């Protein structure tokens, strides 16, 4: 079976469209919202669902996404329940790729091969482990490959040529270019630098490149679309989860969908 | 006293490997954005560590600014009272700023100076590392921001004020459990954002490579001095070394220069809090499992889902769910014995040393003292035991007074 990520990226390329990758945290603000939220994200134009696995110490996240992790953990959301959620999502959607994004410790606790097997069985397509750079990722990478899951890696403005090569040799699906030095939700896009760096990265890999960190709305999505194959948007959704925390599930889902539609519109208008 | 069968032929001075691994522990588990800065730091450290000019500068500061060597004090009255081995105290409490922490901040501040970065950041638990960082920043004219959990700010208000007097900004961390681990997360986030002009001074032998190595190397001055002092004062190496372990920097500093001495037994004392059996403690080596946190693989306190759990200790400086990766390796090898001492036992040791020797130890160091006492009682009086008295207890007076129901203001 061809991986859903590869399939989706190919279809988008043929249609000359860019991927909208949306990130929310599993179980944020409450576990009952997540399934409806990801279905709504897909309905409003998300191409790839990136689902954050809640962790007690999300070192690479800014304050907005940290609070998302804390809200989910307050409801005891775990890697196991996140996999159960993906399985539920797959009952009605067998097309949209799902990427799990998280930190090494919950995955290590489950065990690399147990995790890979369970994730594949649940219908996950790719895994991004923020704190596993290529030199520490070999074990998990192998476990993921064995079951046909793709391994997404981060590239940053400071990644050297040698590292781009090393990462490209392990990566599959797409590579995730972190547009700025900082945590999620911070700062502004430096388009000039994104343009230069992406041109550089393309010399070493044929994988699609999605750009994240600093994309906040339709305009910024539109701006990166000129150089990237896709835009990753997270903090604005998680921020909305926080501000509407006490509202009904329906209100939250609607607001998330509206945001996604705006960003989709910006991305398509490039 | 110690089973050395599987560790006797290891040369401990050859670790970590070039990627920062101590066996399966250590390494570099960080987001890609930080790799460049860590490579830069590792490269600079490799270049400078054997550079005579750099070493001379470090030695000069150790002697004239910190007041080293710190004494090795034979606590005769306490030894007599305990009735057993002779107890020697390595007096890190007499260092400028009052703890072993400054050995490392002097070293890292020198690295910061060589790197040309104008701003330093640090995380702190008890506040000793924060004070030591603020101190070196003041002396070098560097901007300094210290990250400290809200809970620790409350417990250690004297040190917070000391940092402010020294010109540092104290950033109160309100995420997670609001203690040292969250302060470290926040410092990492600051570093990744301001990596071009900021040097991150990690206070313990944890974090991504090369931190566990370079902090150990700077702290090893403790053990090198103790070794010479034992030979001069006792006429031979000590039988046993004892040190408290939170992140583990004072312990590794004392232990490391003795690791190849097979006949020297070593004990690392973790914070048993309300008792290891209650689950309310800060003793990952006694009751944790290996995992990944703060850039390295090491023993951690976590739940069955891999979430890091809250720790409990009377001593803010030991209140940490992880431990330096080299300790995890030494535990598995059986080279060092790791044990735990409860809050109550540590408090009793604090009071005893204060009354008998006129030395007020930090609550962190009191854990080591409590275990040393137990060990000494089982040894004969011609044996010797060195305890690392890693810091002085002035910072803990408000905590002790509160327990006595006394309001000091």
TrEMBL record, chain B:
Its cofactor is pyridoxal 5'-phosphate. One of its GO terms (molecular function) is tryptophan synthase activity. Residues 67-391 form the Tryptophan synthase beta chain-like PALP domain. One of its GO terms (cellular component) is cytoplasm. It catalyses: (1S,2R)-1-C-(indol-3-yl)glycerol 3-phosphate + L-serine = D-glyceraldehyde 3-phosphate + L-tryptophan + H2O. Its EC number is 4.2.1.20. Keywords: Amino-acid biosynthesis, Aromatic amino acid biosynthesis, Lyase, Pyridoxal phosphate, Tryptophan biosynthesis. Tetramer of two alpha and two beta chains. Belongs to the TrpB family. PANTHER family: TRYPTOPHAN SYNTHASE, TRYPTOPHAN SYNTHASE-RELATED. This is Tryptophan synthase beta chain. The gene is trpB.
